[in-house]
Structures are given as C-alpha cells and as structure tokens.
C-alpha cells in the first residue's frame, strides 16, 4: 500500500540551524497519526514540507506516492490546517464555503453545508465574530470539504479551551470515519493524541526518535522496579529507555519484544505519556521523569 507520507534522509535548514535533520520515516495510509515533540523539534517544518509550502534542503519526501505540490491534482489530495486555524475575519461562514468551492475541484458543497449545520454555525456570521472553537471548526470544515486523502493539522487546538478542544477532536474523528482519511495531527497534549490516534511519531532535536503503532508501543514498553542502581540485572534484550533512582529503588522504562516474566525486577504497565516523556528526556539528555503507574 502507498504510504501517506514517506521521507528519505529529509532535512531543512534555516541559515545555520537545522529545523529537521536526517528524517527517514514511513507513515502508513489510513491511520490517524499523532506528531509530538517539544517546541523547535521540527513538527511544523515537517508538516509544511509535506504540504509543499517548503522545499527540502537535503533528502526527499513523498506524499501519497508523489512529491508534494507537484500540480493541481496533487494539491487537491492534501489539506493543511496551520496553527491558529486561519480564517478570514471579514468573510462570513457562507462566503468561506463559496471560496472553498471556487478554489477546490473536489469540493463537496453538500458535505460542507451538512457539517456547518451539525456544529451550529450561522452561515451569515463573519468569521471575525466567531469564538476560537468555532473558527477552528470552520477551518476543519474547509479542510475536509476539499475531499482530501491526507489531512495535515498543525496544533489546531492549542489555543482552545477544554470543551472546544473536545468538540474539535470529535468533529475530526467523525470526518476521519466518514471519509477514510489519513491524518497527521501535531499536538503538545498527549491525552488528545491518545484519545484519537493509532500511530505515533516523536520528534526531538529535529530528528525522529520514535515511530510506531500505538498498540505496539504500549505492548512493548514496561516499567521495571528493582534495587537501586542494579542495572546489570536487566536482561540484554530489554532496551532501557529511561531510568530514575532513589535511595530505595530504581525505576526503569524499558522497550522489549521478549517476555519480561521471570526477571528479578517487578514489572508493570505504562501509559502513552510515560513512553513519550521517556523518549523525549532520553533524547534531550534531561533528567528522567517519574513514571506514572497504570492500574491493572
């Protein structure tokens, strides 16, 4: 199956600074992908490269099997919602939809009207008078009514309150199910990604540090608790991602595909937040965060 997004040694440099470096990644089609990392990790740069708004400095990138933005046909297959969910404040909701119809050959006017009605937007109201959540919903309608195959979202809910964020994500889930979209969603909120994503990419320091199916990541990461500093007792098959220590015990986040039963360490489950923070702190060379216990 053609990948939704594939990169080969991809890099983007601004002056002397590499915003993205040696990025080799394959994101399967038909997935809802969470893209996460600290500020400056390269998330926005990767999404803009995929949307064709930037050109690589080195390496290559393919979107749905083709180079980004190579022509009208390829552009129509991808929708990109940038940060702050841009809309035009002086245009009404209805004028946004007419603009979308004029610019996009695959525009689905019926879908746009249905979604506007479902979320309760007044077609005559100017976008500048809408709340932040309503503007985000309008931007999502504009993106999905284009009938794309790949939807790129760059922190679209970062400035929204919890209720507006939940409503936006619910609308995204509905659109994904109805249209069988591939989605790449950048966010700082791990709980949001855990709620809707089935694939995860972690960027740190302009490079990919972790990528994989969420269920597989949860199944292969574990918490081990044992005597302080006794790392030699950890089997070689267990990759130590991060570790924290007290006078009484050591707590490890490990990644392994082999059974952990029978080790001298007490094993437990971890959540997606622990996995993300463990890999981020490891890559950044930070002190390891405490691991949160997931109840059995």
Automatic annotation (TrEMBL):
Signal peptide: none annotated. GO terms for molecular function: ATP binding. Transmembrane segments: none annotated. Residues 5-230 form the ABC transporter domain. SUPFAM superfamilies: P-loop containing nucleoside triphosphate hydrolases. Keywords: ATP-binding, Nucleotide-binding, Transport. It holds the Pfam family ABC_tran. PROSITE patterns: ABC_TRANSPORTER_2. CDD domains: ABC_DR_subfamily_A (cd03230). This is ABC transporter ATP-binding protein.
